Amino acid sequence: MSRHTMVRVGGVAVLLVVLACVPFFSFTTGGFLPYEINSPGSLQVLALVLVTAALAVSFDIVFGYTGLNSFGHALFFTLGGYGFAMTLAHTELGFGAAIGIGLVASAVGGVLVNGVALRVAGLSFAMVTLAFAEVVAIGIGRNYWGTGGEEGLTVPYRSMPEQLVGVVNTRNIYWVALATLVLVVAVALWATSTRLGRIWQAIRENELRVNVMGVNTYLAKLVSASLSAFLAGICGIAYVIVLGGGVPHMAGLMMSLSLIVMVVIGGRGRIWGAALGAAVYVLLEQRLPELASSEGVKNLPEVVRIPLSEPQLLFGVVFIALIFFLPGGIAGLFSQRRTPVGS
Amino acid sequence: MTPREPSVLRTEGLTFRAGGAKIVEDVSLTVPPGEFLGIIGPNGAGKTTLLNLLTGTVRTTAGTVWLGDTDVTRMAPHRRARLGLARTFQTSYLLLGLTVLENVRLMAQTRGVRRMGLLRTLTSTDETLDAAHAALERVGLGGAATLQAGALSHGDRRKLELAIVVAAEAPFVLLDEPMAGVNSEDVHDLTELIRRLHVDTGATFLMVEHHLDVVLGLADRVAVMHKGELLAVDLPDRVTADERVQTAYVGELL
Amino acid sequence: SGSSDDDSSSKDPVKVGIIVSETGVFSTQAKDFQNGFNAAIEHLTDGTGEVDGHKIEVMVGDDTGDAAVGTAKAKEFLGQGATILAGTTDSAVAVAVAEQAVQNNAMFIGGTAGTTAFVGMDKKVFGTAGSSPAGQMIVPKILGDDLKGKTLVTVDQDYAFGQTMAKAYKAQLEPLGVKVVSYLLPVSTSDFTPTMLKVEKDAPDFITTTWAGKGYNQLLGSLDSQGLLDDATFFKPLLLKSDWAPVGEALGDSVDNSTFYLSYFAGATGNEADEALQAYSKANDHAIEYDDAVGWHAGAMVVRAIQEGGTDTEAMAEALQGHSFEGPAGEVIIRAEDNQVTVPQFTVRLVEKDGEWGVEILDEFTAKELEPPVVNALKQ
Amino acid sequence: MDTVLVLAFTGLGIGSLYFLLSSGLSLVFGLMNVLSLAHAAFLTVCAYASWLVVRETNGEDPTLGRLLLAIVLATLVGGLIALVTELVLLRPLYSRDHFDIVLVTLGLGFVLTALISGIWGHEERIIPLPDSLTSTTSIFGAPITNDRLMIIAVAVAVFLAIMLFLRHTRHGLIVRAGVENRDMVRALGIDVRHSFTLVFVLGGLLAGAGGALSGVYLRAISPATGEAFLIFAFIVLIIGGLGSVPGAFVAALGIGLIQQFANYYINGGAGDLLAVMLMALTVLVRPQGLFGREGRAV
Amino acid sequence: MTEHLLELSDVHASIGVSHILQGVSFDVPAGDVTVIIGRNGVGKTTTLRAVLGLVERTGEIRYDGRRIDAMETSRIVREGIAYVPEDRDVFADLTVAENLALAERKGRPHRYDLVHDLFPELESRAKQRAGTLSGGQQQMVSLARGLLNESPLLLIDEPTKGLAPKVVSEVVKALELIKGTATVLMVEQNIAAARRLADHVVIMAEGRVVAQHPAAVLHDEATIREALGVGTTQGGH
Ligand SMILES: Nc1ncnc2c1ncn2[C@@H]1O[C@H](COP(=O)(O)OP(=O)(O)OP(=O)(O)O)[C@@H](O)[C@H]1O
Ligand SMILES: Nc1ncnc2c1ncn2[C@@H]1O[C@H](COP(=O)(O)OP(=O)(O)OP(=O)(O)O)[C@@H](O)[C@H]1O
Ligand SMILES: [Mg+2]
Ligand SMILES: [Mg+2]
């Protein structure tokens, strides 16, 4: 192992230990998180951050690495989450089976939807995936298929393991979220470092060239998109556990689009960049309203108040600024691996 | 799928039409294993299209393509590539965002890898790496390995195309104007390189090229295309002596 | 939740977490709910904010209309020792927050959310809005006697609330001999013409809708312009005051023979609570809406719960079950069997005076008259 | 017969609206190869602009004249936002990956929509219509509301105008060429910037008209007005063939008709799902869409 | 009329972080053909692109005595410079006719006769999309765009690349015809063609001009071999 790798592995290990120990620390973060860092409120926010980071990482496989502009990633997130929630809410199959069904739903959905959508490329692919995701979002909104409609689908807490119920157990939920992130990142890191991963990257550059090198590019893309969908399904299940139920916004257009924003903010094609982008995004989304409704802000002139009370506005501005001045995202600050070259 | 070593490359009645135009018309061609076949013909004669039909990047309208005993007419490009068909493109077709080395390495790793092999992680001590470096050395791009392919000059891109073919170690090699844009002195070197490749690997070579002296120097036989049809396939000197070739293709030599 | 004996107050404070959509689609309702809530606390504690020595500590959080944010807020407040959570208009958020309360042995008092999920959900979960289907008990009263052979057409949004409503009308009216034809249309419907063609063929005697938000204006407009209201009586619930004018205008001349119903408006009863609410709102420069009463109910329930139960949530909940009290709109009943909260309602006409739209009371119905049957009793 | 006619006209009405909403997208996409994700937000902003005009010019008594003024002004507002967007946000990025431009429009969409809700809130705003638009005209005995007829007429006029623009000016050509190779167009002595700006502004004008007319059609607007149509605009583009304006026209009217008939004869809401299914089918059978050209050159 | 139609002095150019031209200076005498030769990657193409402002450049560039190094590309071209790029750069999505139409510059006669005479293919394929043309046909379109207007200065990058021998000689003949009416600066790898056309030769290496010779040097095998031949295989960057 080279020194460089050792340093990196060591760094990751330390980070993991620190993250795992968060529930044992008790300090405040100066308003970043509500109360002490190990208070249930903070742990809940952190759990959301971790799961969303995992989701962004899963998205980066297809979007950043393979260069496929999927605008409907929320679909697979929803299939996993709702598959899980619906099984618990409508059947007696139990927690384990529900997870299984969620996983199968996202995997099968991933293969089928991408199988169709990959017949077109580029922005058409984006639009087709988006349209498919919208169908599911519409269906959920209209309470088709027992999805609970716009009220969401609460998972009966009696069907959940005791350790995941109640505010006192928020730390367990936090660990579930952390485990999800670790799992997804590990799979993503492994997958992108294989020969197949290298092929995905090559496809992003020039598909025909890769094709005549002897690679079934359709299949390679399908594997990428399906793996990404499957991982999104895992995140969906974790999200439902964290929230205690399926919520319709999981399926919404906003979810898919904000994933793009997260990954681009963090840095396309860099696993930790995607995770970081998502973390920043969710933290702001969760905490900005707090700031906006604080007394100090309420009395500010409108030009300041409106942006603060509409987090989307800030994201939009930051996002545009990043594209202009830091096209590689936050990750681009630390490495030049993907400087785009005009041809 | 069988071939992965030189065998007969054969077409029968190969035809391609698009937009009502006959682009390749009824081409029947047999290339024995290990032969070096030059392909010449006026611009727009259908030479590139013929290569495209062989590699499957264009869909055949009629006719058949065989690699050995295997009918590959309906086979997807990647499957033909796995049978050992490698090619260069007339205008360079590269992975511009990746490094020069990665361009070649991808070819080296794709060759011969079983499906599951795809899940092996890449390491810095990989046999494909040596193969890639060797291929780059061969075309004289050794010093450019870490550059981004997009930063190469036009001529160097042509050489990179060749390096990819070298790394493919393929029994069938199709070259589309490898010398276009290569400076005149390097043309000699590259000609020699191609000659050695052919001799060393014993592969079947098809080369489309407008540098007549290069073609005549390398080819065992030369095929002449004109308006989509195969005019003649013959020994180089006999082809150049042909009246029709003279008027339609060579014209007045500079 | 630690206790501090040396505090100025002799007893433990009670922490109440209010979760509302201060930003997002329902931001106006959030202000109303809070205003009503604060008015009730102030009035019922004589301005002390204390009940029997228990200080009511209110924490307010913005759920932004997002269940994820709402849940995090709920956990935050519960983690801080809140024993009561209250609020919110967005059903998805409300259900998720209620779920958190249940899991953590806290009490939940819902806001304006239209969901029926709270009824019978748990001992400690209460609605306040008298939401559907309880709200629909008024319908047969509007329709009058001798309903045999009459036809009612309902047009609703195809999502959980609309679907519940459609079912409720059928269950309620078909036994009375009314033929109920329900149309459920996508929330995004922008053109009602095809539906109107069908409605015309149904030749209804009555038409109603609970359509809210996008599209209702169009719906009412096409009811009028297709001439459907010439032969049929139209009725519908009224919500925010800002809707009164558009509703009135969209209906054209048909507005005069249409009936509306609502649960509260300023000055509806003139009772003590009504007066107090108006006074408080005036002092705070707040324009009263129907859901100010909802907030008042929540405040009154909190005060009552503490009076009887102190800080013990079991006792608090028990104190509310079977309780009734006088709110700004009249007597509110909390049924013991399923925690169904029923509120009084008014039928009104919309009238325009000097360019302003207001209401004229036709009839009042007490909560007792409007109590729905028990469908989902609490598991004891 | 009446029913069929009414359905056909309402179908054409909504189809025309779909066309107005997607024509700008289609034009900008077809020529500039930019999928403007800010288009929906442009629509919303322009819808609000028309509402403001109506309100400020005393909306109590809506007259056709005022409404038309509102539509015209909103259209201009659309052009203006597009102009500013192109000059400030897009122009510096043409030399970069096309997708970066798509991303910037995504960000802009976020900003504009949030700005609207920040300023005017999430509630619906009503656009009062004059009686002349809400009353009906009898066509072969079927009563058709006049606003539908107006929207259909505008859609046809817009379609013809776009076709004229493409056929009889060089701008379309310049922009198409510029997307492929901007440097080469400049090297032919053409200042591509004007043409790009012009086309994007045209897209903005179309968004403006679309936004104002969707206000007329829906009679009420909210910050979500544009977004609600985005999905249908996409479906129209895919089915019609990306970048083909005639394709968008045919697909938009087709989808509008199919939707109305499905909603009537199958059940309310079936139309939406059917539209998505049609899109999936198109992708499977004819990926380039009805009027799209097969695969761009490699 | 100055003696030199185009003058470059100490021109530097960079692409991204690579400093590619490192002080290029030479003159292009009016009315003559100047040919740039050099190994692959030494910066020949970049030199032409620098003149046109298609790459970031510094230094002094004069056309007909006027500074053009701060001008926008399309302005420079309208001054009367035509460009035939190395990679053909036809607009694949447009038809042949549309490609040519875009090249038409206002206020100048358009020499469709000349172009169609030279490449009859282009007339018969006017409606074909340029992306579907063969490599050589695309080269013809590219050349035709450059020749369409009567431009006083032509910048041509490897015009004969990919053309069949017969067409090469026709192109050379056409350029010989034009020689009387216009000044030409071209990059050419085909030494035979260069010999026929060149009046002056500029030899480049590693981002610099190493020598400027009269055309006769092209017959001097040794110099040519030194300029183009053996040694390091890697171009400068
Ligand atoms: N879609 C099409 N419609 C009409 N003609 C086409 C189409 N596609 C290709 N062609 C024509 O087919 C012919 C064959 O092209 P091809 O690229 O095979 O020629 P080539 O022999 O390689 O020529 P070159 O030496 O110039 O590269 C050309 O004349 C081209 O214009
Ligand atoms: N986009 C780029 N980024 C970085 N370096 C580049 C880029 N494009 C070209 N270069 C470098 O600039 C140098 C000069 O390139 P140029 O194309 O001018 O060479 P040339 O003399 O025309 O070569 P050829 O004969 O191969 O066409 C080359 O070394 C090349 O590697
Ligand atoms: Mg060719
Ligand atoms: Mg060059």
From TrEMBL, chain A:
Pfam families in the record: BPD_transp_2
Matching InterPro entries: ABC_transp_permease (IPR001851), LivM-like (IPR043428)
Keywords on record: Cell membrane, Membrane, Transmembrane, Transmembrane helix
MF term (GO), any: branched-chain amino acid transmembrane transporter activity
Entry GO CC: plasma membrane
Record keyword Transmembrane helix present: yes
Transmembrane helix listed as a keyword: yes
Top-level lineage group: Bacteria
Record's subcellular location: Cell membrane
Segments crossing the lipid bilayer: 12-33, 45-63, 70-89, 95-113, 120-140, 173-197, 218-241, 247-264, 313-334
UniProt topology in membrane: Multi-pass membrane protein
PANTHER family assigned: ABC TRANSPORTER ATP-BINDING PROTEIN, HIGH-AFFINITY BRANCHED-CHAIN AMINO ACID TRANSPORT SYSTEM PERMEASE
Protein name, entry field: Amino acid/amide ABC transporter membrane protein 2, HAAT family
UniProtKB/TrEMBL annotation, chain B:
GO cellular component: plasma membrane
Keywords: ATP-binding, Nucleotide-binding, Transport
GO molecular function terms attached to this record: ATP binding; ATP hydrolysis activity
InterPro entries documented for this protein: AAA+_ATPase, ABC_AA/LPS_Transport, ABC_transporter-like_ATP-bd, ABC_transporter-like_CS, P-loop_NTPase
Domain ABC transporter: 9-252
rRNA processing among keywords: no
Gene3D superfamilies assigned to the protein according to its UniProt record, in alphabetical order: P-loop containing nucleotide triphosphate hydrolases
Signal sequence extent: none
SUPFAM superfamilies named among the record's database cross-references: P-loop containing nucleoside triphosphate hydrolases
Record bears the keyword Transport: yes
Pfam families xref list: ABC_tran
Protein name per UniProt: Amino acid/amide ABC transporter ATP-binding protein 1, HAAT family
Organism for this UniProt entry: Aeromicrobium choanae
TrEMBL record, chain D:
Chief place of localization: membrane
Membrane topology, as annotated: Multi-pass membrane protein
Superkingdom of this protein's organism: Bacteria
InterPro entries, alphabetized: ABC_transp_permease, BCAA_transport_permease
Gene Ontology molecular function terms on file: transmembrane transporter activity
Claim: Transmembrane is one of the keywords in the record: yes
Listed GO CC annotations: plasma membrane
The entry's keywords: Amino-acid transport, Cell membrane, Membrane, Transmembrane, Transmembrane helix, Transport
Parts of the chain that traverse the membrane: 6-27, 34-54, 66-89, 101-120, 149-166, 196-217, 229-257, 264-285
Keyword 4Fe-4S appears in the UniProt entry: no
Record's subcellular location: Cell membrane
Pfam families: BPD_transp_2 (PF02653)
One annotated GO biological process: amino acid transport
Family affiliation: Belongs to the binding-protein-dependent transport system permease family. LivHM subfamily.
Protein name in UniProt: Amino acid/amide ABC transporter membrane protein 1, HAAT family
Source species of the chain: Aeromicrobium choanae
TrEMBL record, chain E:
Source taxon at top rank: Bacteria
SUPFAM superfamilies, per the entry: P-loop containing nucleoside triphosphate hydrolases (SSF52540)
One annotated GO biological process: L-amino acid transport
Classification via SMART domains: AAA
Sample GO molecular function, one term: branched-chain amino acid transmembrane transporter activity
One Pfam short name: ABC_tran
Span of domain ABC transporter: 6-231
Keywords assigned: Amino-acid transport, ATP-binding, Nucleotide-binding, Transport
Family according to the record: Belongs to the ABC transporter superfamily.
Matches recorded under PANTHER family: ABC TRANSPORTER ATP-BINDING PROTEIN, HIGH-AFFINITY BRANCHED-CHAIN AMINO ACID TRANSPORT ATP-BINDING PROTEIN LIVF
This protein's name: Amino acid/amide ABC transporter ATP-binding protein 2, HAAT family
Organism of this sequence: Aeromicrobium choanae
